[in-house]
């Protein structure tokens, strides 16, 4: 305002306010005699006066109407500064609905719209107009005038072409208005403007905010009427579905390619954001010609540009990293390996703690991960719409780069389906008959057949890689895992990778020959030594300095010792990126172990090495530290790997004595209080062995309490690494250290410790230890409260809290407010995982968004009071006595969906009931109240779509137990029945007879335009048997023929199944055993005469009962297993299934043709993820 030339007009606040107002309004209203700059001064004085006396009308000396009439004249002034000041004065004046009504009655809104429309270097005026508009929305959006709405929408629609800098601000206000008064926006065409802006915007956080506005309107039936889903929502698909799409008609021909790429990017962001919300999923996946079917259908059209864009969309929807562009499958696959080296794993950043958080699994075994529920639904929708067939078409008819990307995506989705989809929805996905047919058929072009064969081989390699699981990338994490208690579960370690290359003969001649061939005795070029042979010698059975007194062996040791000593600067001077860096360090660790195994003979050499390392380490606290200990040296050279040598020693009792004798521990303790030693302390924390009580734990404790904030935070994070690695007796010492960190003066440290404690409590031993420590967590707010609630899940903790009257107080609090807070907590976590939303900074209510989405985050179900109480019979009785379940059931049966408060109450009740149903005790309470059918009804038919999503999550929580799975199964809802850590779940022993009724016979709308998918390739009568690898054999049948070739054994009508049993039982048995690698398990032939048809001997029943302990999806009620009979037992199969979508699934020795059907997310069956 000072830059505008405002004239300084004095304001005497000691005068009567009415006199001041009179003077100000007279000067503002005078048409002549008062300069514009003086009017500007008076308008600013008006705001000062208004702020000093408050908003009471009796103090003004004028009515609001009179004041507004005078201020209205300022908006007609020729000076933009005066108009801006008038708008600002009106913004301060409008304080409630009554004043706003007076402003609108005097038609000031047209003048405001005029200020917005004018674009003549008057940004200050337009900014004040937009601020005033937002004030109107805040006061009462339902009174928002259409005149201003028209101006805002016009700027939002055409502002980009006019290079209007206010266009984004105008669209943001339109979005805000659409949430509070959708009618005025919809009637003026504002929703089309928002959707047009979506395709205009390439910034993910803005793009997401725009599309989320429309999705919010689709969520509620009251606002859904304003959105034409088939027309408006699916505009975001247009850049993909319309090959001649032009966003702006006047785009120059030379800019078309660049413009098209920008629209692809915007559309991709919007599609992904739509699939992050329940309203988007339900509307894009509805039955009929839905958006998801349009997208998948595009995969069959040979447009490489569209295919590439769609693959990127699919990768992002399923939270998968996109491979690099290459024709080499191995290179592409390694680029998306979670265990690949990442920048955040460097010593200067998150180091081992960051790597372990990715590589080592979360301790939660049975705690539901809500992201699995979400992904299971989306994956089921895509698969039933024909995604797998579409990807096969891309693999076999695209260039090599696209084919590689599509193959990796296909492998990832098959693996995901096997992990998070129920057996009845996933067991038929792994045959891919289209791909196998192409690889084996000579009726299609050779290029296609070769591509299909390559894809089959690549999928096999993908599967083998997945079977191996994640391996640590750094030697530090590998060191921790090998030294921990869980090391016996690791099938291999880096020290044994090449051992079997050489046939080890336990003879002195062979040893001497290897010593000679290693070149270590006669060559001084260290890096030219045969390090593979050196490693072999160090691992030679029964060979050490104690048993072998030969001078050549001592020379071998002295040469190695000199190479590794820091003072020689040979090993220490090499860079971390040296080709042999990893191998040299591994051999160094083996050398240390070799010397330890040599007892007294190796003690002198080992002590020499350790003293040299301690001297090198001590120099860091001097005035002139060694180069390799300075920040750049330690971060870039192999000198940092000396800590691995020290860590190897600390894992052995005699090594600990040697380290203590050489003064290492004292050196590290002194470094804890020295500044700028973060890298050294990080290395020490990450390599020392804590499995035994001793000085290593003392050093860890000192770093946790006395070091800098950065070091304390890292050391706290390292406790999570030790927890996940299964370090011995963590509950007896690790929990105590974590409880100490809760009181750290740095909030980041205390919050991290709280999060680790929450994970640690997944193990009962840790929970018992925590209860014994009786931590104080009240200073940590609601998160501390949730940790304390975990005590209630075991009798000891319940007694401890109940004796202090804590339980009854918490029951009252949860009924009054915490149930509602729980909804906010869980939805905030889901929003942060699924969108660019980030939690506000402390004390800041501003909603923040990031440009980056998180890669596959976990959202483990937060602790709920009721969910903890039902784990014990006493807690269940307490809930029963207070009639908690009947009260919650009433809310579910009589929901108030008209207001957001009512919807939130309903969600709170649903989450509470879900947590109660997470144990068998609590599930009995739900069954007594018979509330589960009401939850299922809401899940399928609730008009508020976000409530359906909440119901899905809640049903997933209920299906956490086997009993819960069985209850939901009775209502036609399937659930996963294997543990989260079971990567390769075994299929059930018996065929589920209800499977047939759950798979619809409606075919997928996707039809692949390739010869391989025609009926003649799926017809057993027309295609000749082809010889190819047994691993991929499959037998197909055309079940649309008039006279089926195969028949089922006659059964009662109620047991009738439309499935056809195919292939010989001998072949099926062989394939099943080969695929599951269970050679010791033999299946009885289904035509074995020893067992009567349809019955079992007592021995069989007993055996089957025992075997069911290994299965994952069988129902608790035992059903007789259906047997395949020879062809002379016949029964016609009624009904037919289109052959193009029929394929074979191996299911416990039976071949079943199944068909995909279109999925209606709002009406059809649904899947839930759970873990037993």
UniProtKB/TrEMBL annotation:
Q: Which residues form the Rapamycin-insensitive companion of mTOR N-terminal domain?
A: 40-422
Record's Pfam families?
RasGEF_N_2, RICTOR_M, RICTOR_N, RICTOR_phospho, RICTOR_V
Specify the Rapamycin-insensitive companion of mTOR middle domain's residue ranges.
506-725
Region: Disordered; residue ranges are 1000-1026, 1081-1111
The chain positions of domain Rapamycin-insensitive companion of mTOR read: 903-975
Q: Which GO terms describe its molecular function?
A: protein serine/threonine kinase activator activity
The protein's matches in InterPro entries, at most eight in alphabetical order, are given as: ARM-like, ARM-type_fold, Pianissimo_fam, Pianissimo_N, Rictor_IV, RICTOR_M, RICTOR_phospho, RICTOR_V
Bias (Polar residues) occurs at 1086-1102
Q: Which is one Gene Ontology cellular component term of this protein?
A: TORC2 complex
Q: Which GO terms describe its biological process?
A: positive regulation of phosphatidylinositol 3-kinase/protein kinase B signal transduction; TORC2 signaling
**The family this protein is said to belong to:** Belongs to the RICTOR family.
- Protein name per Swiss-Prot or TrEMBL: RPTOR independent companion of MTOR, complex 2 a
- Highest lineage ranks of the organism? Eukaryota, Metazoa, Chordata, Craniata, Vertebrata
């Amino acid at each position: 305002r000072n830059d505008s030339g405002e004239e300084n007009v004095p304001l005497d606040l000691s005068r009567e306010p009415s006199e001041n107002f009179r003077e100000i309004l007279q000067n503002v209203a005078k048409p002549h005699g008062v300069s514009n700059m003086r009017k500007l001064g008076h308008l600013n004085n008006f705001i000062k006066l208004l702020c000093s006396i408050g908003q009471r009308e009796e103090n003004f000396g004028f009515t609001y109407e009179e004041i507004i009439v005078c201020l209205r004249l300022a908006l007609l002034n020729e000076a933009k500064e005066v108009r801006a000041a008038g708008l600002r004065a009106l913004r301060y004046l409008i304080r409630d609905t009554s004043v706003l009504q007076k402003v609108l009655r005097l038609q000031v809104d047209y003048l405001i719209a005029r200020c917005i429309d004018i674009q003549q270097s008057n940004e200050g005026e337009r900014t004040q107009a937009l601020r005033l508009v937002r004030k109107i929305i805040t006061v009462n959006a339902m009174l928002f005038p259409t005149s201003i709405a028209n101006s805002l929408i016009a700027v939002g629609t055409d502002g980009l072409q006019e290079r209007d800098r206010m266009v984004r601000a105008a669209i943001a206000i339109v979005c805000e208005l659409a949430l509070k008064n959708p009618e005025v926006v919809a009637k003026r065409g504002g929703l089309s403007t928002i959707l047009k802006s979506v395709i205009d915007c390439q910034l993910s956080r803005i793009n997401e905010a725009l599309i989320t506005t429309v999705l919010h309107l689709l969520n509620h039936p009251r606002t859904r009427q304003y959105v034409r889903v088939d027309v408006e929502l699916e505009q975001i698909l247009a850049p993909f579905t319309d090959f001649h799409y032009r966003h702006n008609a006047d785009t120059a021909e030379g800019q078309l390619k660049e413009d098209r790429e920008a629209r692809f990017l915007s559309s991709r962001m919007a599609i992904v954001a739509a699939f992050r919300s329940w309203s988007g999923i339900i509307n894009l996946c509805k039955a009929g010609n839905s958006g998801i079917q349009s997208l998948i259908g595009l995969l069959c059209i040979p447009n490489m540009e569209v295919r590439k864009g769609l693959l990127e969309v699919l990768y992002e929807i399923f939270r998968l990293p996109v491979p690099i562009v290459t024709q080499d499958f191995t290179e592409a696959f390694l680029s998306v390996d979670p265990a690949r080296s990442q920048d955040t794993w460097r010593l200067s950043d998150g180091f081992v703690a960051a790597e372990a958080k990715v590589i080592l699994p979360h301790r939660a075994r049975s705690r539901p991960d809500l992201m699995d529920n979400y992904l299971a639904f989306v994956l089921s929708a895509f698969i039933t719409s024909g995604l797998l067939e579409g990807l096969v078409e891309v693999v076999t008819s695209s260039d090599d780069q696209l084919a590689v990307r599509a193959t990796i995506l296909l492998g990832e989705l098959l693996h995901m389906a096997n992990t998070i989809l129920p057996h009845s929805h996933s067991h038929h996905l792994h045959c891919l008959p289209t791909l196998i047919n192409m690889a084996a058929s000579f009726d299609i072009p050779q290029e296609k057949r070769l591509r299909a064969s390559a894809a089959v081989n690549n999928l096999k390699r993908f599967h083998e890689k997945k079977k191996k699981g994640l391996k640590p990338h750094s030697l530090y994490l590998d060191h921790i895992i090998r030294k921990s208690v869980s090391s016996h579960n690791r099938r291999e370690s880096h020290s044994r990778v090449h051992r079997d290359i050489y046939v080890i003969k336990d003879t002195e001649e062979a040893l001497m020959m290897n010593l000679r061939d290693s070149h270590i005795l006669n060559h001084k070029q260290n890096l030219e030594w045969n390090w593979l042979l050196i490693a072999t010698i160090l691992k030679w059975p029964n060979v050490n300095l104690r048993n072998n007194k030969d001078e050549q062996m001592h020379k071998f040791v002295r040469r190695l010792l000199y190479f590794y000593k820091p003072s020689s600067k040979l090993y220490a001077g090499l860079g971390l990126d040296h080709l042999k860096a990893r191998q040299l360090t591994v051999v160094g660790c083996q050398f240390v172990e070799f010397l330890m195994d040599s007892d007294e003979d190796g003690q002198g050499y080992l002590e020499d090495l350790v003293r040299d390392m301690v001297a090198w380490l001590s120099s860091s606290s001097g005035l002139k530290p060694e180069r390799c200990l300075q920040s750049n040296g330690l971060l870039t050279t192999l000198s940092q790997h000396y800590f691995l040598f020290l860590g190897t020693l600390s894992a052995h009792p005699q090594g600990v004595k040697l380290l203590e004798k050489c003064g290492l521990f004292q050196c590290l303790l002194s470094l804890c209080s020295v500044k700028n030693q973060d890298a050294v302390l990080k290395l020490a924390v990450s390599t020392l062995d804590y499995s035994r009580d001793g000085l290593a734990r003392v050093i860890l404790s000192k770093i946790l309490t006395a070091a800098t904030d950065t070091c304390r935070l890292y050391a706290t994070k390292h406790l999570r690494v030790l927890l996940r690695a299964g370090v011995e007796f963590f509950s007896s010492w690790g929990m105590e250290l974590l409880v100490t960190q809760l009181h750290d003066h740095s909030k980041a440290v205390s919050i991290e410790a709280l999060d680790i404690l929450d994970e640690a409590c997944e193990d009962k031993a840790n929970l018992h230890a925590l209860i014994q420590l009786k931590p104080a967590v009240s200073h940590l707010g609601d998160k501390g409260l949730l940790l304390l609630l975990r005590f209630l899940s075991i009798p000891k903790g319940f007694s401890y809290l109940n004796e202090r009257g804590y339980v009854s107080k918490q029951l009252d609090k949860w009924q009054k407010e915490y149930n509602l807070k729980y909804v906010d907590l869980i939805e905030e976590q889901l929003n942060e995982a699924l969108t660019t939303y980030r939690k506000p900074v402390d004390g800041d209510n501003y909603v923040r968004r990031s440009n980056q989405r998180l890669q596959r985050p976990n959202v483990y179900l937060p602790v709920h009071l009721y969910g903890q109480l039902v784990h014990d019979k006493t807690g269940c009785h307490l809930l029963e006595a207070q009639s908690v379940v009947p009260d919650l059931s009433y809310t579910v049966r009589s929901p108030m969906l008209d207001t957001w408060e009512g919807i939130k109450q309903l969600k709170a009740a649903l989450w509470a009931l879900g947590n109660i149903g997470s144990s068998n005790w609590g599930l009995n309470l739900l069954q007594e109240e018979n509330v589960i059918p009401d939850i299922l009804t809401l899940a399928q038919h609730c008009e508020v779509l976000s409530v359906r999503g909440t119901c899905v999550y809640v049903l997933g929580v209920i299906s956490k137990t086997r009993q819960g799975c069985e209850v939901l199964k009775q209502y036609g809802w399937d659930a996963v029945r294997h543990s989260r850590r079971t990567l390769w779940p075994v299929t059930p022993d018996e065929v589920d007879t209800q499977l047939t009724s759950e798979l619809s016979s409606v075919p997928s709308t996707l039809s692949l335009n390739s010869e391989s998918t025609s009926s003649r390739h799926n017809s057993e009568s027309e295609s000749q048997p082809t010889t190819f690898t047994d691993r991929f054999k499959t037998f197909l049948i055309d079940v649309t023929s008039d006279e089926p070739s195969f028949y089922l054994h006659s059964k009662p009508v109620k047991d009738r199944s439309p499935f056809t049993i195919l292939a010989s039982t001998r072949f099926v048995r062989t394939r099943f055993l080969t695929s599951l690698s269970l050679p010791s398990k033999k299946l009885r032939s289904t035509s074995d005469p020893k067992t009567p048809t349809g019955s079992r001997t007592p021995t069989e029943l007993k055996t089957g009962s025992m075997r069911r302990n290994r299965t994952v999806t069988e129902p608790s009620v035992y059903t007789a297993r259906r047997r395949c009979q020879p062809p002379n037992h016949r029964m016609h199969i009624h009904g037919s299934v289109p052959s193009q979508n029929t394929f074979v699934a191996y299911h416990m020795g039976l071949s079943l043709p199944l068909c995909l059907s279109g999925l209606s997310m709002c009406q059809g069956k649904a899947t839930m993820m759970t873990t037993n």
